[in-house]
Design brief:
Heat Shock Protein 90; 7 helices
Length: 338
């Protein structure tokens, strides 16, 4: 791989000054070229990257941006996720109209972003900050958005994260995985990478069988905490099997969230007891899974309307507010896929 290539794990940028804009733009252009986005769409991507970073510099506190490839339906595009803890916006739709500004500028930033991207979503609350997620594809229309999405962030000072997630549809089974490799750094990342690869190639089966498969496939690694969930929308059920400290909840707007049970154990070590459990998964519910790098004290009542946003935006919002800088962190959100 070219030394300047961006991996599928993506790159995180801390956006604290205008100097970050050129670094983000150059990395976005390299990724566009790497994925064969084409000259015109790569130019559009550069504009989007510049506008997102400019907004973070002008309006945000503690602004960060994630740049990564996104792959859906055998196509590849570029995804950017801007996250901040700034003043936020009462009406994101109004703020995206040309001419609306809170900083004495022309107010064309969000409007330009929406025009140049193929998919755009966001969530903002006054005094709570903003999350914006966008995608640029080689050709329009963009593929239909995935029913599950997530993101990972390494602890401060590390270049790789020992946490990870994966999404698959195997013989009609809609399944997700969240994994937390023991420790930090490259060896933890290697354990998680082994779990993700084994998950993607595992025979179709219920979550408990998949977890057993992952356990056997990870015997050469330092091991990991992990959990597999399967959505069964026809039965309005969610099936779940976990080992170790992966947290998971079924959440419904206006209702209490319900925690899911993971058993003690380490995948890849000894012989763990694996059991799966069924939970009610009503219409409009979301599954939230995360590693122990995310504090499990968040409450959905603090985020009115968040469940109406895309899974990626919901995951990014929770990572911002509940993620720990002293640990790797991963959040995944899944919804009924139709």
């Amino acid at each position: 791989m070219n030394r300047d290539a961006v991996s599928d794990h993506g790159l995180w940028f801390r956006v604290e000054s205008g100097s970050a804009a050129s670094a983000v733009r150059r990395a976005a252009e390299r990724l566009g070229e790497q994925l064969g986005l084409g000259e015109a769409r790569t130019a559009d991507l550069a504009i989007v990257a510049a506008e997102l970073t400019s907004n973070l510099v002008k309006h945000a506190d503690e602004g960060v941006l994630l740049l990564r490839p996104v792959r859906l339906d055998d196509r590849a595009g570029v995804e950017l996720v801007g996250i901040d803890a700034g003043p936020g916006m009462a009406d994101l739709t109004l703020s995206s109209r040309d001419g609306h500004s809170t900083a004495g500028t022309l107010g064309i930033g969000l409007g330009a972003i929406m025009r140049q991207t193929d998919w755009f979503d966001g969530y903002s609350r006054p005094g709570k900050g903003t999350v914006l997620a966008v995608q640029v594809w080689p050709s329009r229309p963009a593929p239909e958005q995935s029913w599950a999405a997530g993101l990972t962030r390494p602890l401060t000072g590390e270049s790789v994260s020992g946490d990870g997630y994966a999404v698959r549809v195997a013989e009609g089974r809609h399944q997700v995985l969240v994994c937390d490799g023991l420790g930090h750094g490259p060896l933890a990342a290697a354990a998680t990478d082994a779990a993700l690869a084994a998950f993607r190639s595992a025979p179709a089966g219920p979550p408990a069988a998949v977890v057993q498969h992952l356990h056997r496939a990870m015997s050469h690694t330092r091991g990991a905490a992990l959990a597999v969930a399967e959505l069964l929308p026809d039965a309005r059920l969610l099936r779940y099997a976990g080992l170790g400290n992966i947290a998971a909840s079924v959440v419904v707007e206006g209702d209490r969230r319900r925690g899911l049970v993971s058993l003690p154990g380490i995948a890849g070590h000894q012989r763990p007891i694996v059991r799966e459990y069924d939970y009610a998964f009503p219409s409009g519910a979301s599954l939230v899974m995360h590693s122990d790098g995310v504090v499990d004290r968040w409450q959905l009542d603090d985020y009115p309307g968040l469940t109406a946003r895309a899974p990626l935006v919901m995951a990014a919002t929770l990572l911002r507010d509940a993620g720990l800088r002293r640990d790797d962190a991963c959040v995944l959100v899944a919804r009924v896929p139709w």
